[in-house]
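Q: Could you write out the predicted structure for this multi-component system? I'm mainly interested in how the pieces pack against one another.
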Amino acid sequence: MKYLSIQDLNLQNQRVLMRVDFNVPISATDTILDDTRIVQTIPSIEYVLTQQGKLILLSHMGRPKGKRNQHLSLAPCAKRLADLIGKPVALAPDCIGPDVKSMIDHMKPGEVLLLENLRFHRGEEHPEADSSFAKKLAELGDCYINDAFGAAHRNHSSIVLLPTYFVGKSAIGFLMEKELSSLSPLILSPKRPFHLLIGGAKINTKIGVLTALLEKIDCVYLGGGIVFTFLKAQKHTIGGSLYEEKYLSEAKEFLKKCSERMIQIYFPKDFVVTTDISSGKDSKIVPLEKIEEGWSGVDIGPKTIEYWLPNLSKASTIFWNGPMGIFEIAPFSQGTKDLAKGLSTLQSTIVVGGGDSVAAIHDLKLAKNFSHISTGGGATLEFLRYGRLPGIEVLAIR
Ligand code: 3PG
C-alpha cells in the first residue's frame, strides 16, 4: 500500500487537522505518568509548524463513552506538549462547535491548538450512528494527517471517516511512517531466527497474533497470565493460578501446530507464587513443577531469565509483547524488568509493542537499546495479525 506523506502536502497557511494518540497514562491527580506518545509525535508537529501550517490536534483520552468527564480532559497533554516544544499550545473547550470554529478562525500560521477529547461525543466511537460528527470535524480543516498509530485499529470517526473528506489531501505523519516501517518487516520477511516473547493477562488478545505468525517464527516464549492456560492445556499442575477455560482448546491447538512445525516453545522454569495477590505479601519462588494448591503464579522467576536469555541471544529478530507478571503490583514486576534488562544486552533486532513491557523499558531508561518501541498496544497486535489497520487502509492511494 502507498500513502501520501506529510511532506507531500502543502501546509502553508492551511488548517491542518492532525489526529494524534495522546491517550497517555494519567494519575488520579492528573499527572502524566508516561509522555512517550506525546514525545513521539513531535517530529510531525514541528514539521507542520515550520511549514507555517495552522496545526489543529485531535485526540481521544480514555473511554468517557460520549460524555464529558473532567478527569479525561486533554488539558495535561496541552501543557506537556507546550513544555516539550517550547511554544504555547491552546486547548479548545470542545472539539466541535462555534467556540472551536472561532478559535481556529483566529489562528495564525505556526500556531497550535489542541481540541478537547473527541470521545466526549458519542459520534467519535459510533460513526455508523452519527456521521455528522466527522462532517463537523472536517469543516474545521483544509487537510488531514494521521499520526495516531495507537488508535489506527479503531473504526472511529476521526480515524476512518474524517480522512474521506480530504481526498488527495490526507497523509500519514512521521510517527505512523516509523511504526509501519518497523513493524511491516515482521509480517513480510522477518530475519530468521524470529523469536516471539508473549506475556500479558488476556489470552484472547494474543492467540490471534500467535497463530497468524506461526509460519514465520522459530521460537515462542510464554509468560504472564496467559501462560497458565497453555500449561493447563498441557496438563501441568498450576495450583490456584488463573487460566481461561474457554481458550484451553485453542491453546492446545496452537501448541500442536508449533510441534508440527518444529517451533520450540519455552515455558518459564520458575514462578513467583503467592497466596495473596492484592497485597503481594506471602510470596515465594518455586519451580514450574511445584506450584501448590492455594498458590497462584504471578511472575516469572530468575531461573527463567537465565534459561531464556542464551537462546534469545541466537535470534536475529525478537518481538516482545506483554508483561511477564502482574506488573502493576510492584513485587510482581521484577520478572518483566529483568527480562527488559536482559534483552537490552542482545544484538538482535528487538521490537517491543504494548503497554507494560514498554513501561518497564522506559522505567529502566533502556529504550535506546531496542530497535523499535511501538506506541501501539492493541493496534500493534492487530497490525501483526491482519497486516492492515482501518485507519491506515483509508489513507491508501490507488
Ligand atoms: C490505546 O491506548 O491502545 C489506544 O489509545 C486506543 O485506545 P482504546 O483501546 O481505548 O480504543
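A: Regarding packing and overall arrangement: DSSP finds 16 helices and 17 strands in the chain.
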